[in-house]
Amino acid sequence: MAAAMVTTAVRQTPTIDEPVYVATATDYLREHRVRYNPEHPPLGKLLIAAGVAVADPHYDASYTGRPSPIGIQGDVGRHLLYESGNDPWRLMLWARLPVIVMTLLFGLVVFGFARELAGAAGGLAALALYAFSPDVIAHGSLATLDVPATGFVLTSAWLVWRARHRPRVYLPLAGAALGAAVATKMSTLPAIPVVMLLAVLSGWSSLRGADRRRKALPALAGAAVVALVAVAVVWATYLAVDPRLRFVPAEPVPAVHGLRGWLTDLLPLPEAYRAGMRVQFGLEYQPWQGYLFGHLYTGSLWYYLPAALLVKTPLGLLALGTAGAVAIVTVRRLRPAAPYLLLPPAVLLATAMTGSRDFGTRYTLFVPVFLAIAGACVLTLRWRWARMLTGLLVLWVAVSSLRTFPYYLPYANEAFGGPANTHRLLHDSNVDWGQDLGRLADRLRQRYPDERVWLVYKGSGVPSYYGIRASDPRKVPPGRVHGLLVVSDSSAAKARGRLAELIKSSRPIDQVGHSITLYRR
Known about the structure:
This protein has 20 helices and six strands. Helix 1 (2-11) packs antiparallel against helix 5. With 521 residues, it is mainly α. It has a four-stranded mixed sheet. Strands 1-2 form a two-stranded antiparallel sheet.
């Protein structure tokens, strides 16, 4: 897994979100303030900052960004990477390495959780499913927040499970892991009541033999400890950035009224955190475009994420995870683990399905991670073929993952045609997140030297930095567009008007990384 993530990280150009996170992490290091990207709490970016500190980039704090399609904070990130004398390849690798390390460490949590449920063989099976999961590898090799947030939620579920036997030790630790998740991504906030409920269950289970009245108060106290520690971790994260808790946002924070605004004001969290929640609510109100199975739409579809997960999850993992979930519910010895293993991903998935941004399975990375642990529980079934079938399905996952190397972002399982077909089914971070600009430059240099290039690129990279000399075909009459038409697959999926006509009247001749298509005109 380490080899897959590192070799992927060194070849990929910055994805759409990464420059924002890297610039914010650099601002944390140099200016000790919360100014950019308030919609995401600081912890994940503090992890990224550990790598940025080693890279030691030149940073011009006086550059405050320009309004642009990628936003002020996106422009600050682009300026840091491409206009400040830094090497973006080196800076991005160092920024990605802490997330890679955290992804590997969370694999040990997967192993430990599964081993407690299904023995050493189950632990190894779960670890293999996790280590070969294309989505985990793809996002674990980026300087983004999705894998750290998922890993902290998983860790809190495992620790609160262990609290059934030693609540005084593990409940505070579960609260710390839960706080780390909430201090990384606000989308994990629904995990707070879930883990608190599990803490009540663990506290109740730890007092075997006591009457109900004597169980109730310690169980409720345990849930309170989890919540208090989680809140303390969030405060500590903001204090680590700026002990004076200054908050001077680079862009206006939208006002949020009604129930959402009232609940946001009630939260016992730093001002910057509550402002970030308002930004997130503001984003939810915007009319985003989605793309599913060839259909472009405005708004969101409640079934988008389950459908995308069916495409992006290896078939072997889907089969094992489903069978394991059934085993957890039906096998008496495993039944106590059912709420700990099934409730967190179910609640988080249900919450994510209500969102307005159908951008990718990165919002649901906890599903394949928890499925890996559930899948290991198949080994506990008293069925003569259980071990052989589990081994074959794990091997299928490994082969499917190795076949997509090193193009993990556009992975699709065999039932949906593999990674070469993903762009016909999904868009954005499922396929094309701007990661292949460097590979495109190499392809143009090797196969198409001295040809006229017309480029429609979706991403945060700067094509000219990589030696790509291209024009925008949407800014000239169609009759002048001759030569190579190069289009990011997400842009092609959403193409309308002039771009759609250009693509329709061109002939596809090549592709790069299953995310960019080259046409001949």
